[in-house]
């Protein structure tokens, strides 16, 4: 297996005329070829910012991106173009990302040309791209304009265009959330098929944790610009550790969700937390999360300590002042939570 690390650590700020928003802070993630990593969070959690930082669309105020271990200078120049070719972005709204006055042929040809891949048999390359995204027979689609296609077909064209660069990674920002519910699954299945056949690393950004479970190998949860929990998707959705992730799963019953049946092993109303207190062994508390309402905090002045503490039903004194680092949850390899409940030193 070839690993494809894209790593970002540090802090990024979007600076406006009068204020600085800490959109994402201390975000670190590694994408691996042949795996889908979901980045889940509410709108405003910073998940799109992470994708745009990785794609080099936003200037960063710190941190770095590494590709195969080499630090990428995202500023500009040849090195960045080489990186940008390997890391392609897919946006939420395929209608907005395709030019309405140009045909499918134009979009795909241009992508192949930009990336120096418009070889001798351009027609063959175009047909291959369309077949890859299951728009077959290709002749039926190649000379169509975006408005002549359905939403799902447009998103497939956008994916084909990204594949025109022969990328190693796709950054897909809510790639199905604007599509009809009935065709979402088809597009996700296509991405999964591409992941396997082309050995792609995929970053799947979504607000829908149910779809992350269905589609992603690994899941990371973001809250207020920070990553709060990560691990394999099955563990995160079946045994969420962070109180915020539990809240997300609790509020997941969304008519649009992809996996219809609630999982009987996930108790959506209550959950157990192990509360760590020195000298007290493994006390278990039954906590109801349903009462925890509220809004995500402003990123201009994020709360001190754990950013989730104003909404957290099990917040402790230290949570209001001390920022929790990542702790191993201990129930599955690689499962971590940035929450003081899992402070091994106190357990
Ligand atoms: Fe809640 Fe404290 Fe954990 Fe934050 S660190 S999620 S406030 S228990
Ligand atoms: Mg977004």
From TrEMBL:
Key words of the record: ATP-binding, Nucleotide-binding, Transport
Residue span(s) of domain ABC transporter: 1-249
Gene3D superfamilies attached to this UniProt entry: P-loop containing nucleotide triphosphate hydrolases
Pfam annotation, one family: ABC_tran
Signal peptide: none
Classification via SUPFAM superfamilies: P-loop containing nucleoside triphosphate hydrolases
CDD domains: ABC_NikE_OppD_transporters
InterPro entries: AAA+_ATPase (IPR003593), ABC_transp_ATP-bind (IPR050319), ABC_transporter-like_ATP-bd (IPR003439), ABC_transporter-like_CS (IPR017871), Oligopep_ABC_C (IPR013563), P-loop_NTPase (IPR027417)
GO MF entries: ATP binding; ATP hydrolysis activity
PROSITE patterns, alphabetized: ABC_TRANSPORTER_1, ABC_TRANSPORTER_2
Biological process per Gene Ontology, one example term: transmembrane transport
This protein's name: Peptide ABC transporter ATPase
